Every structure is written in C-alpha cells, then in structure tokens.
Amino acid sequence: VNSSSSGARRSSEGPPGGLNPGLPSMALREYVTAALGDHKLTELVCAGLAAESLTLPDLPLLREEHLARVCPELKMGPRLRLLRHIESHPPGFAAHPSPESVGAGATAARESRSGADGAHTTVTASSATTSATQGRVRSRRVSKSLLRAEQLTSVQFMKVWTAAAGEGADRLEGPAATAFLDAMLTARAEHPLSPEELADGRAVVLEGFGSPDGALEIGSLQQLLSVEECFLMGFRSKSNITSVAFMRIFTHYDEDGDGTIAQAELQGLLRDLLTRDRADAASATAELSASSDVLPSEIAEYTEVLLEMFDTNHDGKISIAELSRMLSTEQSFLDVLKDKAALTKKEFRKIFRHFDRDKNGAIAGPELLALAWDELRSEGGVDLDAIGMEHIKARAAAMLELAGSTDGTILPGQLAAMLGLDPALAE
Known about the structure:
Layout: H1 25-36, H2 39-51, H3 64-70, H4 76-88, H5 99-102, H6 104-112, H7 133-139, H8 144-148, H9 154-165, E1 171-172, H10 174-188, H11 195-209, E2 216-217, H12 218-225, H13 243-253, H14 263-285, H15 296-310, H16 320-326, H17 345-355, H18 366-378, H19 389-403, H20 412-418
Antiparallel strand pairs: 1-2
Helix pairs in contact: 1-2, 1-4, 6-11, 7-10, 9-14, 10-11, 13-18, 14-15, 18-19
C-alpha cells in the first residue's frame, strides 16, 4: 500500500526492522496519533511496532501486509489511514528513494497531492500518452459518485470492477487501467487535472498498488477504493438462518430496491459468500493463503452456476424464494401459532424477541419485512414461490395500518392485537 520508494516493494515475508537508529518513543506516538487521531489505536500500533523493533524512521518502508502482521488487531481502515499519512507526511529516514527508482514525476505528484484522498494504482508515468482512448468508453461506465465514495459495498465494488476491467476479468491492465485511473483521479480531485498531473497520479497509484507489470489486481483495487468488510461475516450459523437475518441480507444486496437480486448484485453477494467461506477455512486451519482474494473469474463462474441452479423462472435474477433456498432459510417462525389454541406470556415474548433482533423493543425495517414474510408463508394454500417483495411490503404496510402505527414500528401490544391474541400477553 505504501510506496515511498521502489525499495519499499519488499516481499510479504516481513517488514524491514532496525534499519535506522530509533527516535524517542514519544515522537513515534505523536506521529501515529496525528495519523489516526485515537490514543487507543496509537498504543496498539506502537506496541506492535515495538515488538518488531521498528522505529519511526522505519515506517516509510512498511507495506500493508507487513502492518497487518505487526498489528493484527488494527482494522483495514485505520491501517490505510496510517499508511496514507506515512505516504503524504513521511518522517525523515535514511533509505531515501532515488529518482531512478521512483521517477521524478511520481515524486512531484506525491508532494503536490500530499493531502489528497488515497489514490494509488497501476501503470507508469510514460503510459499517460499510450492508447488511453481505447479504454475511455469503458471508464465512462464507472459511476463518479462511486469513485468518490468513502466506502463501497461489495455490490458497488463489483460494479466498479466489472465496468473498469470487463466481465470476469481478473486484472485491470493496459488502456483500461489507464482510463480507470484517470476517471478515479479526476473524480477525487478538487480541481481539473492536467495531463501531466494525471500521469504523475497514475505513477504514484501504480507504485503503491500495482503489480510489477503495471496491472491492478482485484485485492489492490479493493484497498485503494476502501470496500466494506464482508457483510456476511455477521451471519454465521450451523443451522438454517432466521427470516430476519435473511431479510437483512436480501435488502443489503438488493441495492436498487426492485425486489430481486440482479446479476451485478449477485456478484457482490457471491464475493462476500466466498470471502466468508475462505476466512472460515483459514480460521479452522490457522492458515491464510496468500492467494485468498476472490477473483472475478471465480465470481463469474459461480454466478452462472447459481443462476442455473436457483433461477427457476430463468429471468436472470434471484427472487426472494430463490435466495431463501440458496441460503437455507428456516420455515416461518409463526407456524408455531397453527397448533396453539392459546399462547403463554413466555411463548409470546419468544415470538416478539425472535423478530426484534436488535432488542430495541420494536419491530421495524428488515424485522418487519421478516414478520410479514413469515405471516404470508404460514398461511395455507399459498404458493411460496409466488411471494415477491411487493407482496411482503404490501403485507407489512397492512400490518402497520392494522396496528395503528404511524412511525413504521410495531410494539409488543400492537403485535398481540394484530395476531388476534390477548393484549395482556404483552404486559
């Protein structure tokens, strides 16, 4: 991630240590605090650096993977903030980069853009005049708002990657990389950039994030654009997932809100599924493969397979019913009411708590959608495959109206009355 010199492009086996005489530890703490703005994070970083005998002058030689190993409890966001601070405000150190190894243009760009939001990628300064026009058509499809976003969802990231690199491509290279970097640098700049500034910016980005042959790998671009941590990490279960968890997942990946998971959205979902599975496998074996990044070609392959398996109506999208089979969702929790002539207070509280997953005393948002979905699924004679998000939202609206709710939430007493139960159960 950090790229103060080509000499900083070391192997991932470990960071350099003890290369310079150490400065007072207070100077290191002040420097890290200025980067992170949090004393707890500062102590975490300083403790990790001290354990590796690393001092302030050594910081410009750190790479992201080194810092992750030295400070494993430091999350990706703070790690990148620290590395970007090192890039834009390097402390004095002995191993200064040579003009030959870095390139005068990249050095000038680093100085002129010291406060810019991290922009690092793949291609050399001389590639500014190469056939960039060949990639401009593709780069126009990348949303400027996404390129300016502080953090992207997995779905948004896959849309950016596919628009920039092409469907199923594992690398962003050549004219496509040049066009993408120009689009990203332009979107993030506070003023129009000259061709020279764009060339310098590309050089800096590629130096920090690019591969030796001047291409961008998907893992590097993920760090560059700051993508959210895998959303599905919070949904681990050895049994079927609950309807509330299912609705949270569905609404998270259905970014356009049309009630289906379209192919572009499905790619984001699959990326997170594969990431979670690999993280679980790595945790079980206490090993993390160096090639743990999920490649776009894998995602494209899995997308095709899953559509063949679960897209029963062959519309190229995944519906509520299709995703519920794909994720092994539990049956309607309200089925318990079918065989009950009456409920005890304990049983009613169990039902309410099942849907009130955030424990705020009200059922709302994805919780309400899950309640509506479960009620529809528990009704006899209903074709479960025919239940779409439009039916679920309509039932949720009817529930709110029946409950007399004006704020979009359902309280315990309202739920009891709505289900035709004794309101005293909610007391």
